[in-house]
């Protein structure tokens, strides 16, 4: 095959006719396939079924410090869970709060509390400022951006490079503007590109001078152990790096077992300096009398140690790696030589990020939708849902079966080709 840009007008038109016939055939099949959200497949959920049987009425339900997990209390989580998650995040149990079922809720509530009351280094609550702004490395996680939008926090798009956010942009902005209070980071196997931040990026984030004394890094380490291969990405320890940089309170780390056990019924965790943790604990005491300790105990008894979680994640990888491979192989076979799209080849996480030619992503997503294949909305990976180049598409391969995925990807490739030809025909007019 030849690059589309080398084709004459007539060749493009002929090719378009051919592709549209294929497209109409797909449409006639009345497909209903979904590659929009990063959900584990049923077989992955089955891996954790034992979690439902691990606690029963004959088990001892007392844990360390003589806590009865059936009752109220322990705002920051049971010791055993703190130890397990401290090992997961390479921090000390004293730097951990084990919470409820969702890390996104923890992130949302952390920002809401900062707006209402400030954070540990604040002079005043953030809401007193005329404007609060967050830096948003993009493409990024749509629900992070949705939190900012709902709380009227202005978002500033930062380019994602191959080793993390463009730190020249970040440093320049935070050094001048005191209303920039935070940055969203998915530092390992990022959503959607699968990028892991380099040591240099971690160092610069921890060391940079910020005009706001209470600037915070929201370090959403959602995919910290979601490896797809045996080649595990290494992420430099942000908490320790911030400490060494003299900015010990700069970072809030978040994670959860949503994509380890059951999304919606997992356990969420945050980690930070002890000062941050103490401050947050005091505030949490107004929000709740304590988290779901039974679920925390279930997770502890099921996995026992961090090695138990690692072993479990290998089994997840065995189930989903073939799906990632299939998507990559179909993209390679159908698009590689045409010069109309590029895509990430992640070593972990939940997504493949695809870039079409500029100005084509919306058209591709619409065409796919009309042929029965749902993708994440074009633009969703950018603040305010607006991709400045209209080119990024997030592919979530985990939920569909292999055969569904194959059909969905065949449809997607045809849609990308049609949209690209439309664009080329338009621009050569
Ligand atoms: N952070 C990221 C980067 C995610 O991709 C997701 C899930 N898609 C979440 C957080 C949600 O986590 P939780 O289920 O713990 O709220």
From TrEMBL:
Query: What's the domain of life for this entry?
Result: Bacteria
Q: Which molecular function term from Gene Ontology is one that the record holds? A: DNA binding
- Which SUPFAM superfamilies does the UniProt record give? PLP-dependent transferases (SSF53383)
Source organism per entry reads Metabacillus malikii
Q: Which residues form a coiled coil?
A: 9-36
Q: What is this protein called?
A: DNA-binding transcriptional MocR family regulator
Q: Where is the signal peptide?
A: none
The protein's UniProt keywords, in alphabetical order, are: Coiled coil, DNA-binding
